[in-house]
């Protein structure tokens, strides 16, 4: 899959030799609604002998438009988003740098620069996608301004349990630790990338060694608690028990959130390894224990609950 970075007005693609069927959107999460848009664009590419492509934006528009100073956490960081797009059959991804100059484009300028000049022959987006200055451009306007230069497909909202599937709704499920609901909305288990770093080694001392995962910057971390997870390390998926929290049994008033995975049936040194953690079910909330014995007993129960969950 080819990845092309664009920046307005300095780094643009003009006079492309390829003709594109283009899906437009930020696509944070690449959830079921996003997948419907992308699959439509890929289908149109096959129908019209075009290159299936996606145009997405980086960073999140709220950073530029909203003046947000706090961290923005993504459901899918760019590397994972690209993996998911490739799996859906996308051959080219255009990543447009979202800047104040880009945000000032009129809808007409956006269409001229990022549709006509890039030889886009078919545009697909969700019913609520907007573009141009202050989001003034709608998909109705996209079609009205086509003048037979390109065709337009608008994908209606995708619903689960009669509610729209959206990134906002998925964030809510993650904040609640409802990983099964997140799985339903995403069409896959929620996951984040990270690297295994040195920890306090307390898990090893009590018979439950853990991989201390430093998640990639900007990753959305689910609610604190204990989860049944799978972890991808050294090209293999393993079942595991994950604690997301502040290890209150060992540290009072700890402000550093940790993600620690006890990997089942595993005994390797994996410091420095890149991993992917996929969350499946929240087993319980995080709690403080009155001693090591009660902590060990609970971890063993968590382990058995995880084994039983994946056995199903």
Describe the protein's architecture and organization.
It contains ten helices and 14 strands. With 312 residues, it is of the alpha/beta class. It has a six-stranded parallel sheet with strand order 1-4-3-2-5-6, sandwiched between helices. A six-stranded antiparallel beta barrel has the order 9-10-13-12-11-14. Strand 11 and strand 12 form a beta hairpin. The protein starts with a strand and ends with a helix.
The strand line-up of the biggest sheet is 1-4-3-2-5-6
Tally the beta strands. 14
Q: What is the molecular shape?
A: elongated
- Helical/strand content category: alpha/beta
Second CATH tier, the architecture of the largest domain: 3-Layer(aba) Sandwich
Summarize the structure.
With 312 residues, the chain is an alpha/beta fold.
Keyword list:
six-stranded antiparallel beta barrel; Elongation Factor Tu (Ef-tu), domain 3; 10 helices; Rossmann fold; alpha/beta; 2 domains
SSE inventory with pairings:
Layout: E1 2-6, E2 20-24, H1 32-48, E3 51-58, H2 61-65, H3 78-87, E4 92-97, H4 100-103, H5 107-116, E5 120-126, H6 139-144, E6 151-155, E7 159-160, E8 163-164, H7 167-176, H8 179-186, E9 190-197, H9 202-205, E10 211-215, E11 225-233, E12 236-245, E13 258-263, E14 274-284, H10 292-311
Parallel strand pairs: 1-4, 2-3, 2-5, 3-4, 5-6
Antiparallel strand pairs: 7-8, 9-10, 9-14, 10-13, 11-12, 11-14, 12-13
Helix pairs in contact: 7-8
């Amino acid at each position: 899959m080819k990845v092309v970075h664009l920046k307005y007005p300095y780094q643009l693609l003009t006079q492309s030799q390829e003709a594109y069927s283009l899906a437009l959107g930020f696509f944070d999460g690449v959830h079921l609604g996003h997948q419907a848009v992308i699959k439509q664009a890929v289908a149109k590419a096959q129908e019209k002998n075009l290159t299936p492509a996606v145009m997405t934006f980086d960073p999140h528009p709220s950073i530029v438009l909203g003046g947000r100073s706090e961290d923005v956490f993504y459901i899918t960081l760019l590397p994972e988003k690209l993996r998911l797009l490739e799996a859906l059959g996308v051959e080219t991804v255009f990543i447009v740098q979202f800047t104040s100059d880009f945000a000032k484009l009129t809808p007409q300028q956006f269409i001229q620069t990022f549709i006509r000049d890039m030889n886009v022959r078919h545009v697909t987006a969700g019913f609520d996608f907007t573009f141009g200055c202050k989001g003034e451009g709608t998909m109705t306007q996209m079609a009205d301004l086509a003048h037979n230069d390109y065709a337009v497909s608008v994908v209606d909202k995708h619903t689960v349990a009669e509610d729209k599937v959206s990134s906002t709704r998925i964030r809510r499920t993650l904040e609640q630790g409802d990983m099964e609901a997140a799985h339903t909305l995403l069409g896959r288990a929620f996951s984040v990338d990270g690297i295994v770093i040195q920890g306090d080694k307390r898990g090893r001392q009590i018979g439950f060694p853990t991989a201390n995962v430093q998640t990639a910057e900007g990753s959305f971390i689910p609610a604190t608690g204990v989860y049944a997870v799978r972890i991808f390390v050294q090209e293999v998926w393993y079942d595991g028990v994950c604690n997301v929290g502040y290890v209150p049994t060992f540290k009072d008033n700890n402000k550093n959130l940790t993600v620690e995975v006890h990997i089942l049936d595993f005994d390797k040194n994996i410091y420095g390894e890149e991993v992917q953690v996929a969350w499946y079910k929240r087993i319980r909330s995080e709690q403080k224990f009155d001693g090591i014995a009660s902590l060990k007993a609970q971890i063993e129960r968590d382990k058995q609950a995880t084994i039983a969950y994946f056995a199903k």
